[in-house]
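Re: beginner question about structure tokens

> Can someone show what the tokenized structure looks like for a real chain? I only ever see the sequence side.

Sure, here's an example I had lying around. Input first:
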Amino acid sequence: MSAAAKWDNVDDWAPGLTFRLKVLNTKTVKRAKTPSEVLPVCLAHNLRQGNDEHRHRSRIDPSRTHRNEAWAGPDRLDVAEALVRDTLESFGLEPKRRDTIMGVEMVIQPPHGIDLRAFWSECLAWAHGRFEHVVSAVVHHDQKRPHMHVLALAVVGGRLAGNELTASPNRRHQRRADFMAYMRHTMGLRPDRAVKTLGDFAASPGKGPKTRAEAEKRDARLSRHGPDVGMGVNGHGGSILAKRNPHAQEREATPLIAQLSRADKVRLLWALVAELNVTPDTPLESPQQAHQSTEQGDLVRVREDDMPADCWDADQGEFRPQPTSQSAQKAAARAWVSTALQNIKRKPAGLPFDQ
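And the corresponding structure tokens:
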């Protein structure tokens, strides 16, 4: 049931202390065509006069209407309408917008088993302390449970101030909290708490939409692996690797030399020396020299005009070869190490990759 339906149908409220607040304008009071008709329509319903066509008259027991009480304002509709009209005219107030807030209506339902007259008196005292012009307060005994309707003009300091009376810190929930605190302080009353049964807990989906959303995300993640998730290889247990992203770029394999520690690299170097029978008199060619050395048939003639200016050696009076870039030197060093590893007939004992 919608919030509007809960407000309109007072008989549908649950038992216990209840407070509702409604802003009165042509949008919330459907039968009022102009702002000047808003309060008279509400007064007609609350005073049970000239309101026979109201859609909720079927819920009213006419045999008990005489028990209704007017705790504030006139009990006659024409007098109450004149009071509202005279109050607005005394301040020179004339609404200029069709949706102008003309007043505020509060409906208050008492809990069971308390002194009703003391309760109505405290409700009226609370309303007078919050609103300057309370024009009507009527208690209804001709419906399912007794309740009070309080009508107050949206006038503050001689001006229409509907937004001020209904905006923060005077919003509906803030007004309700203020009223409940007042009743707790003056009469020790608290609103009834809803008691959940075992059936309610069994049917509960959790803590709300957030929990359900998280559950749906987990289900979606599990559905990506198919029905065999958790069965392992051939259904014998273990884990199944998730499918790889077909659009992901393949990572280059880390070179073997880069996986070794500094100590292992030194041991590998000594193993290479022993394997290649290198002696102190054996000339060693560096990776850079090996990369730069070429066969006689591979020599290419280069014109001096094509050489960059920074390659000119003024002391020697000649052009020197362009230095090799750092990336090319690294590539040459890796190629040299790879070639050296391939020349080893057996792996040195004690290395970390011995299995």
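Each token stands for a local structural state, so reading them left to right follows the chain. The chain has two domains: 3-186, 256-290+306-343.
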